[in-house]
Write the structure tokens for this entry.
Amino acid sequence: MTTPAVQFKQDARRLSADLRHRRIIQTAMGNYEVARDQRKAAFQDWQGARQMAAETKWEAVNHLDRHLEEFVRNLEARGAKVHWASTGQQARDLILGILRTKNTRVIVKSKAMTSEEIHLNEAMEQAGYEVVESDLGEFIVQLREEPPYHIVFPAMHLTRDEIKDVFQRKLGDAPSSNPEELTMVARRVLREKYLQADVGITGANFAIAETGMLSITENEGNARLTAALPRTMITLVGIEKVLPRLEDLALFLPMLAAMGTGQAISCYNTLYGGPRQPGETDGPEEYHVVLLDNHRTALLADAEQRDSLHCIRCGACLNVCPIFRNVGGHTYGTTYSGPIGAVITPNLRDLNEWQHLSYASSLCGACSETCPVKINLHHHLLQNRRNASRRKPSWWQKIAFKVFAPVAAKPALWSLVTRMGRLGQKGHRLVKGGRLDPAYAWTKTRDLPPIARQTFKEWWRVRP
Amino acid sequence: MSERDNILARIREALAVPAPMPGRDHDAARSRPVLPTTADQRRVLPAVGKSFDEQLALFRKNAADLRADFRFVQDLDALAAELKRICAAENWQRVASHGKELTGAACRALGLPVLLTDQAFDKRELARCDVGISECDALVAQTGSVVITSRSAGGRALSVLPPHHVVVARREQLVPDLPAAFALLKSKYGASYPSMISITTGPSRTGDIERILVLGAHGPKKLTILCF
């Protein structure tokens, strides 16, 4: 069996040498960076905005019980049904239960990373329902039967020709590889699905405690249609998505758009506060909201890393991460990739199995610097490394430090070892980087700089 | 215990240990952060001019950047005439709208049969319409957005299902920025909110294929804003 760590290494090796993949990602990210920087510059005080956003999220997460109860009270007052799920299994069962009572056949979905997290599509398909992803990127990766590549741009790793191919194969309709024509094919196919669907399922970006509303950010209008046409609507949302007040969106909506896609504001920012109200003539007759824990409370219990629950899933840390840009989104093998995925996955799943992600970082700190809610991402990666080695230190590390500690503590021994090291390096040069090299695993991709010919102390003694 | 009680109990247990606040000293964790006021937000958000003319110019510029068609006209008659011109140019056959003062006046000028979505209607019939004409709650200068709700704009589908969405608005509805838009929503609907509030900015779009902008992904391909 391949462990996640072995799979990560294999895929990372393959993809970091895949120049075509790298070119696609670099081009997309280059365009993104220009747009993002323009949007940041439009703010009068971007750093001030980050601090405000961080503090607002701190308040939301550190008084989560209070805000959640207020959110639920206000939402239920307008006739929505709220369900609580501790695990992914419970959330799947709850949703399948709703689908059964509604005699569902076709389900239309707008983008929801929470549903990827709990593998909802597989469960619904196994139960015999037709499930259609409506976000264009999600629709494309669904046709290709692969997970989303990126939390904001699910199909960014594909070229127009690859998309044309899959449309041809699965839909039998691809007039050309022109992005506009391909988009119109998807539009035609999905229009019919919105009208047929019995149930619409969405995720949410924010849950507003003060008014009991779910805020959904999108550009295509697919979530709007998913929420407008089917007779039943279900929103699956993580418990950490709460914001205290309606006006907090005045800050979060433009920040999310700037960092997520480099827009001033996304095309549709829509608040849903219940099913069809008295006097309204359309919209769902029933609105179900499923609140998902799925290990979020475990992350909450870690005060040191609690701020990773501030995440608004903008994807900015993925976009700036040198590791993500070289190994790509699928290599991580997780729902959430990039720095934020590397931080939260070991906590959401299993630290020992996923601790290798804490090393998928150069610790450059670009992620922490870009994060609009100031999550201390690269420090959390270090903390995960510490936690993992505390829990299960590896035998060779134990030996290495047993040897290193006395050497480093005694100056005479230290000086002897550095002198031996200089000699050893001369001999090493003969086999370095080759198969005979005992340190091959290290040196095949890294350079070991030569030890200085003179130590500081030696220089001091003989200085002119 | 219900799952609700379980989750809330786990949350309360977790929060017994305080967390440091990002960007502050460690002992500041004990003091509660003050949520930013509207004035705080205005200090950091993109700048908006004070006068109506500045705000109108900003809205116009944002609308153009977003490829929305914004037309500012003298009065309601001129607005109706403008709508008639668009109708002729696009050869509308079926029109959908809702029965409010501005939309009523605008649609009467078209002289076409109108599907009203504030009465019971068939969604497939709405899908066959060439245009959805709606009112709105506000226009936001800062972002070039239109604020609509299920109550003010003929429900949820009218503004997103037909391929062209036309918004009719009065000049008094122009607000400077997002904080003002949310304040307006609170004062207007605070007692009883509609089931949907949407801040719509430009026609539907996607960049999911090679990050190339395509308009009309699922929602309207065109957004026209007529204001007098």
Remarks:
- Chain A touches chain B through 113 residues (CB under 8 Å).
